[in-house]
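Researcher: I'm comparing several assemblies side by side, and this is the next one on my list. It has 962 residues spread over two chains. Same procedure as the others: predict the full complex and return the structure.
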Amino acid sequence: MSTLLPQLTAKDFASDQEIRWCPRCGDYSILAQMKKVLPELGIPREQFCFVSGIGCSSRFPYYMNTYGFHSIHGRAPAIASGVKLANPDLQVWVITGDGDALSIGGNHLMHAIRRNLDINIILFNNQIYGLTKGQYSPTSPLGSKTKSTPYGSVDNPLNPLSVAIGCEATFVARSVDVDTRHLAATLRRAANHKGTSFVEVYQDCNVFNSGAFFYASKKGQKENNIVYLEHGKPLIFGKERDKGIRLNAHGRPEVVELSGISEDDLLFHDEEADDPSLAFLLAQMRHPEFPEPLGVLRNVSRTVYDEAVRDQVSHARETLGEGDLEKLFNSGDTWVVEA
Amino acid sequence: MSVADPPASPEGRSKEAIDTVVIRFCGDSGDGMQLAGTQFTNVSAVFGNDVSTLPDFPAEIRAPIGTVAGVSGFQICFSSKDIFTPGDEVDTLVAMNPAALKSNVADLKRGGTLIVNEDAFEASNLKKAGYDHNPLDGDEELAAYRVHKVPMTRLTRDSVEGLGLSQSEADRSKNFFALGLVYWLYDRDSKPTEDWVQTKFAKKPEIAEANIRALKGGSNFGFSTEAFTVHYEVPPAQLAPGKYRKITGNEAVAMGLATAARLSNADVVFSGYPITPASDILHELSKFKHFGVTTFQAEDEIAAMSATCGAAFGGAMAVTASSGPGICLKGEAMGLGMITELPMVIIDVQRGGPSTGLPTKTEQSDLLLAMFGRNGESPLPIIAPQTPGDCFWAIQEAMRVAVEFMTPVVLLSDGYVANGAEPWMVPKASDIEPIKVDFLTAPNQDDEFHPYLRDERLVRPWARPGTPGLEHRVGGLEKKDGTGNVEYSPENHQHMSDTRARKIANVADFIPEQEIDGPESGELLVLSWGGTFGSCRTAVRQAQQDGRSVAHAHLRYLNPFPRNLESIIRSYKKVLIPELNLGQLSLIVRSTFLVDAVSFNKVQGKPFKVIEVFNKINDLLNS
């Protein structure tokens, strides 16, 4: 961090706009953690750009005193791609929701991730359409009774982490809105990753889908329902840290009691595994059969799109020289008409 | 057969000088007709003729071989005079198979020259073309033409014999045989083509040699066969003095963008998704990285347009290009660019519509889409290039208006302008006015930055992310003037809608006045726009030579109109609007000026013939 930079605080990142999320919305907590993390990154405020689509979460940029673009439904990853190509020194954050990213914007999300642009995508997953007042979303569980599915939804939900890993995302993580310390740490790691960082945040919509993630957020429940991932460490969870995850003879995960089992028999997390199979296996561990993993599932290094684009431009400039317009205009066959 | 260079002029046969010739090469899509046509264009341009071309190819890359659906054609008009169109009627038609003959012979002038590859006129090809007989048999069917039946397949194979090529490889050179024959017929120098072949096939010397041998074989055939009793000379045109090159519309757009990037203080970011007939812009631009051009092949049209909005916000001169159906997909994000007031250019290379329509054919049917194809009140400036070479200037003009007025601008090109070629006077880079990009560097209202604080033309400032103190948010929600903060009040929405519309109307003070060709008042004004320039200008000039009271105004600026357009329109008793659509400019002109303009419309995927416009002018003046 440069010592010349003025020391910024969370306050410096608050815009003058009144925040208009519903009282006790999980978004408040995510906003607070973001404002806390940004000053720690050693990046001047003018170098941040927040891009969003449409939905409750997508109001986020208005509340950040940085550069920001509240765009159109589903297109934030594509807009962020343009911002990053035009202005590669910016740290670009995409703020999106389950409907915005996985329904109308599914295609853009997939392509941003596979290109591995150096952007950070934070998906606020509340398993509901909040802004349009309560229709089921592509992450709502099968059978969800909502305004548009009074008899229960009949389509299978997407698992955001599986989608990201399927697109070979280089950084995949999950956190929970009210798990503030973990969320801040996850955002910090996402910010520092080179390439596309994809973070799913379980976010409570207390108006239209209250309690969807209480199993993972409420004291007394979460201890048995989540497992914190740590690189190189075995998967251990439970209030008494008395349970673990082990791979059975078929290579499938199973919950085991630690009494009588050596830690060495447990599944050890390796977020840097080049092969995405382990990350995918972790993403598939769903409540209530398994504790759901929180933390970084995958963190690998691959070619970064915008860097590669910049490299091609500098290479062209080095080998061909700065573009010579006279040479360009006169390329190919020319002829002269005499006066 | 000898492959020696033929002498310049065969003994005992004459060489006639003529001023204008129209040739069309046609054959199966795999026969290399576009290549033959392009080469003929190059050598004629280098020789100093004025040229104008009309490539015409099927949407299918490889339609069933030998069928009418698979016929690909390339028409070129070359002249010792100044010409504006690729010609109405064909003087010499080269048909490589029965399907090509069937679908093209109607355009051949009576008494014109017909050169056919007679080897291709066998039973299965005749059947595929829908002939129940061989049109080359007997004297009657093609009696109106000077027919030359040339066994091109066999002669090509003979020409390349000994090179160790397979038969199918050898047959691929027959377009060069046809080209060589036509080169001889019109006294063309084949050297530029030979050089091109050597470069193009540098890694396959046996293919290069085969093509050159076929080319010479064709020339020698023309020279040594008594069938061709006359060959022709088309002297160089008296173009304005200067240095020229051949250019297509899409090449000119790409070069114009490279120029904008190089001369201005902002880079160009081009985002596109492959679509006919706009893809060549992406191809060309991707070579221009060292000029400050970044290209982004997006996952779809929506992403290309969205990335363009993002790049504009990021501080680049942002551009996207597509064609009709792609522009439909871009509509929503164009609206975002409009309401956020960010500068960018959307290039629409119009093609036949609706829906997928006629992907490889030309039309002018997206004018109303460009004008109104977005939700809400969202006017955008529209500029239309009139010739291939003009695309170079029009794209820079579009970008200049975009940056000057902080707005998306639509450039309405079309398939005819984009793929057509003409001689283009090479400009001097130092004579080109750079596009001046003024990024704000400090707060503009006391110590605060108000992103929607406007100047006297109602234009807001452009602040590049990364600039300290100018952090701000933009978005698709209605905003308060000045601060840009979200604001839904009724009065504010009225104010902002009015303001954005007035800002676009103010562009009229920035663009030049409309020029007219002909008398300043009179009986008839022909009002046209975009790619129909050549046909309309030629038709009007012909009518003027006949003493008719007619003038031509060709619009380059379609929104807003030039400030003097109304007074021009009111100076003539009648107004004729020829368009390759069902009356789109006509609708706008009639409603804007309450004038009883007459529409003249064509939607056949083809440009106007001069004669069509000429006849319509006379009809109107006689009625």
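Model: For your comparison table: Chain B touches chain A through 76 residues (CB under 8 Å).
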